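Ticket #155: bound-state structure for heme C.
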Amino acid sequence: MLKKLSFTLIVSAFMACFGGYASGQEAQDIIKSRVEGLRELGAAFKNVNDELKSSSPQIYIIQLSARQIRTAAKAQYDWFPEGSGPLPGRKTKAKAEIWTHPDDFKTAQDAFAAESEKFTKSVAAGDFNEIRAEAKQLGQTCGGCHRTFRVDDKR
Ligand code: HEC
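RESOLUTION: The complex was predicted; output attached.
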C-alpha cells in the first residue's frame, strides 16, 4: 500500500516536472479517444476487405470506408502526444518506442498516410483488381507500424 502510494507520488512528481506533459487523467482521455479512432479505422479496413472478398463487392461501402481511412490517416498525427505513452496502470498498447524513436514512428505514419491516398485514388478509379492490390499495400502499412510500435497481442 505504502509502496504503491510512494510510487504514485514519484510518478506524479515526475509528471509535474514536465509541464508540457499530459496529466494522468488527460493522458487516459487521449488514449481512450485514440483507441476509439483506431477501432473505427480497424472497422473501416475490415469493411473494405469483407467487400473485396464478397462475390459482389459494393463499391459505395468501399468508397465510404476509404473516406474514413483517409480521415484517420490525417487524424493519427494528433493521436500520440508526448505523455500519452505507457506507464504502470495505464491501458495502452502503444510502445514507449513511439516517443523514443519519433522519426521512425513518423516514417510509419507517413507510409500509412501516403498509402491511404493511393488507396483512395484506386477506389475513385473503380478497378477492383487495383483496389485489391492497394488494399493489400495499405494493410502492410498497418502491420509495419504495429510490429514495431504496438505491444504484441499474444504477450
Ligand atoms: C503509425 C503507426 C500505426 C499505423 C500506421 C496503424 N496503427 Fe493501428 N495501432 C497503433 C498503435 C500504437 C496502437 C495501440 C494504441 C493504444 O493502445 O494506445 C494501435 C491499435 C490499433 C487497433 C486496436 C484498438 C484497440 O481496440 O485497442 C486497431 C484495430 C488498429 N490499430 C487498426 C489499424 C489498422 C487497420 C491500420 C491500417 C489501416 C492501422 N491500425 C495502422 C499504431 C498504428
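RESOLUTION NOTES: The chain has a mean pLDDT of 90.
TICKET STATUS: resolved
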